[in-house]
Amino acid sequence: MPNHQTITVGLIQASCSIDPSQNLQNAVLKISEAASRGAQIICLQELFRSRYFCQVENSELFSLAEPIPGPTTNTLSDLAAKLKIVIIVPLFEKRTQGIYHNSAVVIDADGTIAGNYRKMHIPDDPCFYEKFYFTPGDSGFQSFPTRYGRVGVLICWDQWFPEAARLTALSGAQFLFYPTAIGYQQADAGEVEKQFSAWQAVQKGHAIANGVFLASANRVGTEDALTFWGGSFICNPFGEVLAQADRSSEEILIASCDLKDIETTRQNWPFLRDRRIDAYQSITKIYNDPND
Q: What is the mean pLDDT of residues 54-66?
């Protein structure tokens, strides 16, 4: 638990080039700028080191993966220690031969790795062929202690599942971070506003239901068949948006989060207190057939 009552959160919303080294360099510059503006916990977007490669199934793209610890975490660990900040680093992780994950490393303000979350829910849709690349995470939903508070991380597709947010919150998270790569194909352009509204609403619902701060970092720009809709945002434990990026530009988003709001919200809206955990056994079933 940090000594400070107010923690400043930063999100990096960026477009990505085809050069992983350039993307890392840009991230270092933007993280440094966010830190200069007071950010203490800074989150990059999902798979920030590359363009979103999951639009195709191509085994050559496994070459983008790297171990943890590895080159990217080493660079950003040094930066975190230098700037005394926490950095959430989403990576394409090579765990061992033939096992790869969509991961997010939490680097503490002294440069050590506080934890690594591996994406649990893996989508398989047109232009989002993630099952080809990623093994589902096997460490469950957890949060990690850092200098500036307890941080929970979920990744993109995870954001639609209330169970993931609840279990992460129950592990003690004060902040839920969602590094994200979400957008649309041109055929769905007419549905974008509905999709964006639902995307933001479900995440605000997680903040409200669990009484936590929530921050979602998305990318922008068009990459092959997908246009990413940006809209990164930070909200408080009652779902009020503290800061939001625009829908098409690179942006560094900054918001101050008063940790006292967690306790105040949970006292006034005691959803955690009033849960009926004795009656939830059926949640572990795929489907509750009314004919059974």
A: 98
- Catalytic option among 46, 130, 223, 251: 46
From the candidates 119, 130, 223, 235, which is the catalytic residue? 119
Query: What is the rounded CA–CA span in Å between residue 123 and residue 131?
Result: 6
Say whether 43 is catalytic: no
Residue type, 233: F
Q: Residue 290's pLDDT is what?
A: 86
Q: What structural domains does the chain harbor? A: 6-284 (3.60.110.10)
Any catalytic annotation for residue 16? no
> Catalytic one among 16, 43, 156, 257?
156
Burial class (CB in 10 A: 0-12, 13-18, 19+), 74: exposed
Report how far residue 173's alpha carbon sits from residue 258's, in angstroms, rounded to the nearest whole number: 14
Which amino acid is located at 32 in the chain? S
pLDDT band at 123 (very low <50, low <70, confident <90, very high): very high
**Residue 285 known to be catalytic:** no
